[in-house]
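Quick log. Single chain, no ligands specified.
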Amino acid sequence: PLLAELAAAGVRDDDITLLCGIGLHRPSTREEKVAKLGLGVVERYRVVDNEPLNPEALVDLGTTASGIPLSVHRAAYEADILIATGIVEPHQYAGYSGGRKTLATRCLFPFHCPDKKGERGNEETGCENAGGTW
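-> predicted structure:
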């Protein structure tokens, strides 16, 4: 219904990007996107995965007052309007999925970046001292 509402409002298909928030999980395959969104959606719209470990896909927003680096996917940064959708449900490590995790996926929570707890490092997470992929 949301895509139909956007079309009815005159938004062109070429102006819509579906940015899939995959967190620190591996990128989804085309087949997985089709299974989740349907073939018509995947063929009609630009569908991309967030890539929090790919600096080329991100826009550097600087740092917070306490020195925490901030970045966002280029598609989200360049959007005139950003609409976050999805479910909100209990999450094993982060309290709840969705909500703030729609945009904030990398090292926002101690669970995603255990270096705040002094655990050993892991290159895969992008955190200096992450104990594993969460």
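The longest helix spans residues 30-37.
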